[in-house]
Structure formats: structure tokens, C-alpha cells
Amino acid sequence: MKKTQLLQCSLFLLISSSSIAQNHEFLDIGNIRAMVSSDGLLFNNRTLGTASFEAPKGSDINAIYSSSLMLTASSIRNGNQHYSYVIDRPGTIQSFRTGPVDIIHQVGDTSSQFNRIWKISKAAIDAHILNWSTTNYVIPSSIIDWPGNGALNTAQKLAPFADLDNDGLYEPQNGEYPLIKGDQAIFYIANDFRQGWHSFQLNPNNSNDTLYDFYDNPMRIEIHGMIYAYNSSSVAANNSIFVHLKIHNRSNSNLDNHNNLKLSVAADFDLGNFADDYVGTDSLRNMFYAYNGDLHDKSNTFSNGYEHKLAAVGVKFLDNSIEHSVHYDHTSGPTSELDDPRTMSNYQNGLWKNNQPIYYGGNAFDFCIDTTIRTKLVYSGNPTLFSDTTQWVESNPCLNGNTVPNTPGDRRIYGGPSISPQLNIGQSTEIDYVYIFARDKDSSSHISDPVQDLFNAADSVQAFYDRERFVGISEQKVKNQLDFKIYPNPAKETITIETDLRVFDVEIINLQGQSIQQEKDTKTLTISHLSCGIYFLKLLGESGSGVRRLVVSH
User: Fold this and answer.
1) Is 464 helix (H, G, I), strand (E, B) or coil?
2) 415 HSE (CA, 13 A, CB side)
3) DSSP assignment of 171-192, as one string?
4) 122 domain-assigned
5) Which H/E stretch holds residue 310?
């Protein structure tokens, strides 16, 4: 059985990577309780070998067994041949290691300072902003330990922070604070600076199990991941886990200028009962997803099911179009899960492991396929249009009049966004995506019911994300173009804006995104009428705009 086997695999991994297995935290501020590990593995408890994406929180039902990040690229060093690096689920090779890169010696940093994960809340940050200079205030460890500054040979700035005096140093004792997204965030740093021959077995306790060998050629990248969630009036946002990735090329050699960069999110969807799911792709919403494949998601020995109130869960790319999605099997053969990271580029480029194209229709491989149409997006029809036999979905895989549905099962899928193909040394790239959960409020009458709920939630989450980014509820979500300062800050009666602009508009915005004060060409503002709390001051000039956080403390 899958879960028994993976429990054995995770125990094997625990022995070889015990420090990583102990470094994990839960996001739990919204309606999801989800585990994050320090090397970027999401939603899996390596110690127990169990799923850890509880949705809804407190239900003891999980929607995802694990999720991970995969990258491929080509470079001169590797003979212009594709290669890939994996933060994969238990039982497969772990190419990433916790912590930043020693840039000078081109190795992973081995200090204990960064061999961990960081969890912090917006409430703690706001309290620090208001109280850091008051008597008897003790700065919490989540703020003191924030990895704003690197070590001697690493990048000097790591985790984002408000550098109030612009000296490049993180100084919480002087009122500086972490910059996070959401109401609660977990931050990790990982790198792939290692190489050599590696071997592993999916089931190391079985001497007859296949032994996989491959040569590991590092991309020499460092990943900064911020996984975050909200406690919001938006139900859809509360049912979501957001991810912001920043990927740095930390090599010091032009041999590692990367071309053809591709990224995939691997998701092992176990939606309640792991053995009765379907998957699909929604190119309009830039999302791949899973949903219960029958009307009764039964509980079993390994997991609790969603019973008659069916559920759906998806991975949605927020700023990029979806470029590829391909399902894979927990078996062997051309359509099986990754056993050699080098074959990952096949899945990203519309090929099975045996180099056969992924075809439209059927199972995309050898059943009911249309060999005249190649695709990179599997099951791209709309399950909610269940009377439309032209929709390529798992309940209608054949488009030739044969409407026999697929047998629901244990579904896994790789999906990735369209991103810039270049990542040269010294460069970085950023990607945002979100895991969205939806469930019927009443007993489902059709397996597509939660899919429609998921589609509605995805639209709501996209609007929520766009609004948060545009309004500038927190300073780090605004692309600052104008450089200016405000002082004093915190302030009681008046503030002064230090800027070279002569013509500009000033706007003060509250935490709800409401504009509460507007001025024009004014560098001194009266703020004594404002209640104590946190606001945002937006400066708009001909060349752009900028936002600074303003604290009012009478």
C-alpha cells in the first residue's frame, strides 16, 4: 500500500536528514493547517510519513499529501544539457539543503545559524512597531532571530526587512522589523550546492526494489521561500496557502548562466481518501487541480475522507500563465513518477519519459489519444460542463463518443508557469502561486460541484491577491519607485516628508485600504486627528509612486 511504503521511505530519509526533519512549522492562522519544512518540502510530516494539509483546520482531513519544487535549466558547464533539482516528497532524492550559499567558496553554508525555519505573525510585527522604544518591552525571538543579515561569506541581505536608516543592517533594537506577506508567514532558505553520484530506492527496506543512480549537477541557486496565509473576511483567502519564491543564481562563474529555465510544482493530491481522485487543468485560471472522483469519499485505514460533502484543491499561478501540467503514476514505466531528475525536463516540454509526445485526449499516452494534437496541459476541459462530450476531463476521457470514465485513483501532477528563460549569475527571479481549497456545503449531487466552488474561490483569491498588491496594505507589497522619507515616525502631531519633488500628491491609507487623507505639494502634514495605529503614506509624482509605513502614537 502507498502509505505503508512511504512511511518506510520517510523513516529512511529521517535517518539521513534528521536535522531537516526536525525543522518544520505549521501555518495555522486561517482555515488550513499546513506544515512547511526548512528545505521547502510542503505539507508532509517526514517524521510520521503522513499528509499535513488539514482542510478545514480541526477536521482531521487532509487534502494534499505533499508538494515540492522542481527546476531545470541548461548551461555551458553542463554541455547545454537539461538537468533538474528536486525538493521532492519522501522517498526521492533531496537535492536542496537548508540555508544560504557561501558565495566565496561556492558551497552551502554549514553554520547552525541558518539551519532552521522562521515563523512570524503580522500581529507580532505591528506590536513591535508600536512598542519597540517603550520601557520594559521585550522583543520577541521571532523578530530578533529574523535572518535579515547574512553571514561573512553569504549574501549580506537575506530575509526582507524594513531598513529604516538605509544602512543595510537589520536592527530590530532600533525599530526595524521583518517584511512579510499575509497575517502569518513562514520563511525558509535553501540551496542546491552539492554534486556527485547519488543512489536511492523508493523502498529501501525491500532489497528487490529498483536502485536509482544519477549524477547531480547543481544549478548553484539559492531559494528564498515565504509561505503565508490570512485571517481575512474573504472565505476563499482563508482557505488558501500562498507562496512567494525568490530564486537567486549564486554562482560566480559565467559557466552557470542558465538558459531554458523552467519551474514545476509537484503535487501529490490526496483529497481525503487518496485512492479516488481526479485531476484537471484550467488554463483560463492558470491552475491545475484535483477533485473527488466519486460521490462518496470514504474514510479508510490511512486517512479520513470528505464523505458526501466533496472537495477540490488546486495550485494557481498568480502572476504567470500556466505553461505545462502533466499527471504521473505511482508505478513504473514512461508515465511514472520521477526516478531520475534529468527526465523532469521531458514533462516540462510536453514529453513522456520515453520521449513520446503527450497527446490530447484519453490518458494522453496510449488510450483514446489524438496523435495529431500534442499538448502540455492534461485534462484541460471543464468538468462542470458534464453534459458536453467535447470536454476532455477524466469523467469523459475519450472524445470519440465513448463516455466510459477513468477509474478514480491516487493522482499526482506536475504543473508550472511560463517564466523568463534566462537566469544569469547574480540575477534572481520571483514567482507567486497559491494552494486553494474548496468544499461543498451540502451533500454533493455531482462530482463537479466542488470544482465549481474551486473555480469561484480561485477567482476570488486572484482578486484578493491583486487588491492586496495594488492597495499596498503592507509596504513590501508595493513596487516602490520614488525614494522619500517621513519623520518623525512614530509621530504624534505632524510629520515631514523629505523628498526632492516639488509637484506631488500625498495620500494616507488605513489598514483596510481606505483613503482617509489627501494633500497636494505639502511636505508637512498634520496627523493629530488620526487614531493611534498603523497607516500607509503614498507619494505620487510624475515619475512614479512610493509607499512608506506610518505609525501614529499619541
Assistant:
1) helix
2) 32
3) -GGGT--B--SSSEEEEEEEE-
4) no
5) none
CB-CB neighbours of 104 under 10 Å: 10
The C-alpha cell that represents 216 in the structure block: 547531480
- Residue 58 belongs to domain spanning: 2-110+190-471
Please tell me the predicted confidence (pLDDT) of residue 164: 83
pLDDT band for position 193 (cuts 50, 70, 90): confident
Q: How far is CA 378 from CA 63, 268, 274, 321, 373, in A?
A: 21, 16, 20, 15, 12
> How many Å separate Cα 399 from the centre of its chain?
34
DSSP letter for each residue of 393-459 = BTTB--SSS--PPPPPB-EEEEEEE---S-B-TT-EEEEEEEEEEEE-SS--SSTTHHHHHHHHHHH
How many structural domains comprise the chain?
2
* Residue type at 387 in one-letter notation: S
Q: Are 230 and 474 in contact (CB under 8 A)?
A: no
Distance CA 98, CA 192 (A): 9
For residue 264, what are the CA distances in angstroms to 54, 67, 125, 226, 315? 23, 10, 33, 17, 11
CB 465 within 8 A of CB 434: yes
Residue with cell 475519450: 398
Cell numbers linked to 377 = 496541459
Are 441 and 495 found together in one domain? no
Identify residue 17 by its one-letter amino acid code: S
Q: Are 535 and 512 contacting, i.e. CB atoms less than 8 angstroms apart?
A: no
Q: Which residues contact 104 (CB under 8 A, 6 or more apart)?
A: 153
Is residue 537 within 8 Å of residue 490, measured between CB atoms?
A: no
Q: Whose grid coordinates read 518544520? A: 24
pTM: 0.81
Confidence of residue 93 (pLDDT cuts 50, 70, 90): low
Question: Distance (Å, rounded) from C-alpha 160 to C-alpha 170?
Answer: 9
Count of positions (residues) in the chain:
554
- Distance separating alpha carbons of residues 312 and 453, to the nearest angstrom: 8
Percent of the chain with pLDDT strictly greater than 70:
86
Instruction: Read off the pLDDT band of 470 (50, 70, 90).
Output: low
Whichever domain contains 534, its CATH number is: 2.60.40.3080
Q: Tell which residue, 103, 97, 93, has the closest CA to residue 158.
A: 103
Domain end position, chosen among 417, 440, 471: 471
Cα dihedral 371, 372, 373, 376 in deg (nearest 10)? 50
Which are the contacts of 513, defined by CB distance < 8 A and separation ≥ 6?
A: 467, 471, 473
- Phi-psi group of 99: left, alpha or beta (phi > 0 → left; psi -120 to 50 → alpha; rest → beta): left
